[in-house]
Amino acid sequence: MMVTQAYAQEAEIPADENAGDAVHVVGGEQADPTQGTHATTEAHGDDHSSDVFPPFDPATFPSQLLWLAITFGLLYVLMSKVALPRLGGILETRKALIDADLAAADADRQKTDAAIAAYEKALAEAKSKAQGIANETREAVQADLAQKRSGVESDLSAKIAAAEARIAQTKAEALTHVDEIAAETAQAVVSQIVGDVSTDSVRAAVAKVKG
């Protein structure tokens, strides 16, 4: 039970007033009248010390420092022997995983770059081959067309020459009959006009006119 200072002072007042007059007999002997005063003083001192919060009491500082050092030491040992090694192991494991992931990502990137380079090279080769094939095809088509055109032109020239020869032959044949036709026509006309005329004389006249 905590005794306040005011309560202790009230308790001292009747004790001091009766200190001179009170006589106590304990076991048939007279008691010292100052014993009550000493007891009251000790109680007052205890009551005064109980008013201070124990952590702020200077009398408890040595024990507090001792327990603080013990607690700090135990905490330091616990952290250095248990917690920090586990944290270090976790950090090392995570660092190893991150490094492995970065290495795998770099390897994948290199593979991707190599695949892209190979694709671009194959595409360039395909374009080059396609261009070459197109050029060869165009040249072959042009050569074929030129050959066919030459054949057609040669055939046309032969046909034109044959037609011209036939025309010339027909013209020559026609010209060979012109004299006869002219003589017959002249003979018929003259016969109608003057009477019968010999064929030889008519042909001679036609030849003379033609010449």
N-C termini distance: 180 Å
Query: SSE string, helix = H, strand = E?
Result: HEEHHH
Q: Give the amount of beta strand, in percent.
A: under 5%
Count of distinct strands: 2
Helix/strand structural class: mainly alpha
**Main beta sheet, described?**
2 strands, antiparallel
Structure description:
The chain contains four helices and two strands, in the order H-E-E-H-H-H. It has helices at residues 5-17, 35-49, 61-194, 199-210, and strands at 25-26, 29-30. Helix 1 runs antiparallel to helix 2 (35-49) and helix 3 crosses helix 4 (199-210).
Compose a concise summary of this entry.
This protein is an all-alpha fold. The chain contains 4 helices and 2 strands; from the N terminus they run H-E-E-H-H-H.
